[in-house]
Amino acid sequence: MENWTTIPLINLATVAAMMTMGWIFSVLRRNVTIVDSLWGLGFVLVSGVTFWTGNGFAGRSLLILILTAAWGLRLAGYLTWRNWGKPEDHRYGQWRENSGQPFWIVSLFKVFWLQAVFLWVISLVLQKAQLSSAPSRFTALDVMGTLVWVFGFVFEAVGDWQLARFKADPANRGLVMNRGLWAWSRHPNYFGEFLIWWGFFMVALATPGGWWTMISPIIISIVLLKMTGVPLTESALKTRRPGYAEYIGRTSTFFPRPPRRKNR
Fold first, then answer.
1. How buried is 144 (Cβ within 10 angstroms: 0-12 exposed, 13-18 middle, 19+ buried)?
2. pTM for this structure?
3. Do 224 and 195 meet the contact criterion of CB atoms below 8 Å apart?
4. Is the pLDDT of residue 1 over 60?
5. Phi/psi of residue 57, nearest 5 degrees
6. For 108-143, what is each residue's pLDDT tens digit?
7. What Cα–Cα distance (Å) separates residue 65 from each residue in 62, 70, 165, 166?
8. Helix (H) or strand (E) segment spanning residue 57
9. Distance CA 16, CA 10 (A)
10. How far is residue 17's CA from residue 2's CA, in Å, rounded to a whole number?
11. N or C, which end of the chain is more exposed by having fewer CB within 10 Å?
């Protein structure tokens, strides 16, 4: 019981401190886009603290740490590379414009601390898997969860890589990315993210009472499918990419499937 009365609170304080430092940096740079890179790093931090301070089954705790570090560090590195030297993301730029002069302090609550709370709640699935001492062996759910995670990780990483290569070619400026995984899903990176968190849940489900951590992948799924994931991305692309309507007509929104044939 000691684990669940201390370690989660330590993790909450840790991610809040990390986000506060990120906020200070954003004020100095007048650019809050850094919060995107801190998102993945925050989960790595939570998993690391839980691994070193918890007393759950060491094998499962280490497994979660390895999976979280692989996902979080890749995502943070990719987003940092993508955003480096560029203007503030249009989402945050709009908030800055709407908030006016007080945005420097508003962003602490509306951007950084809000994401710290979301991050901590979502990370409960990781903490539950790492803090549980039973079962003190790997189970079929651990294996299946890891396989789902691996599939999602590859899908997300390959999708990001394919999109980065497409954007790097000047000949593709203004065109719609409809190749590779992007021919099967309009958001393969989000689909990969979706699988990653359901994979984490399957590992947590292997522990007693792990069912309640379903809250974590459910939140991720809602964010991706109904909030800042697919809807926000598509609303921007529909206006900036002339061929996007045709792309929508033949390509699945989220779950991959073969592209529809063009009507003759």
1. middle
2. 0.91
3. no
4. no
5. -60, 120
6. 988 899 999 999 999 999 999 999 999 999 999 999
7. 5, 8, 30, 32
8. none
9. 10
10. 23
11. C
